[in-house]
Design brief:
184 residues, alpha+beta, 5-stranded mixed sheet, 4-stranded antiparallel sheet, 6 helices
Length: 184
């Protein structure tokens, strides 16, 4: 199979390589029910030491910056209660944590979740967190610019490998909310 974006040596439909995916992501692909067929989600094998965006782009092509998305875990706090959420934005932008995210979560304070919380709660590796396979109750805030992409490159749940996902599929994830201006 040829990757729909980028130049990768190994690309395969996600349902055909569940053993390459970590548990929560593989389970989400197995249960996929959106209007975008699961076999349009493509797994590409990449080097784990190149997982961070800047290094990844150096090795796989800077043109992927406009087609890549980051998924970060945030924690909103209000009155002793903490709400964890995921935010998906284009890789060339930052998540507006103290503005858009804080207001959307109804939090007094919002910040990036500590690494051990993000990895412990998702079951995913730091640097590879993906919105596919997150805990079901979490809000998933998706920047509208990501949804507008024909395909977006995002983490696979591990530092090794990435997923190529049709942009519209992000809007169909459980608890997904498409937000204008989430990435600034």
């Amino acid at each position: 199979m040829r990757a729909p974006i980028g130049e990768f040596d190994h690309a395969i439909a996600a349902p055909d390589c569940l053993d390459e995916l970590i548990g929560p992501v593989a389970d989400a692909v197995r249960r996929w029910s959106g209007s975008v067929p699961a076999d349009r989600i493509v797994y590409v094998d990449t080097e784990p030491e190149w997982a961070d965006t800047a290094v990844f782009l150096e090795h796989y092509g800077k043109e992927l910056l406009d087609r890549s998305a980051n998924c970060v875990v945030v924690a909103g706090k209000r009155g002793g209660e903490t709400t964890l959420a995921a935010c998906v934005v284009l890789s060339g932008t930052r998540v507006d944590v103290n503005g858009v995210v804080r207001r959307h979560l109804g939090a007094r304070k919002a910040s990036f979740a500590p690494m051990e919380v993000a990895t412990g709660e998702t079951g995913m590796e730091y640097g590879g967190i993906t919105p596919i396979g997150l805990p079901g109750a979490w809000p998933v805030l998706v920047d509208s610019a990501v949804v507008d992409l024909p395909y977006a490159l995002v983490g696979s749940g591990r530092r090794r490998g990435k997923l190529l996902v049709p942009g519209t599929a992000f809007a169909e994830l459980a608890n997904a909310v498409v937000v204008e201006g989430l990435g600034v």
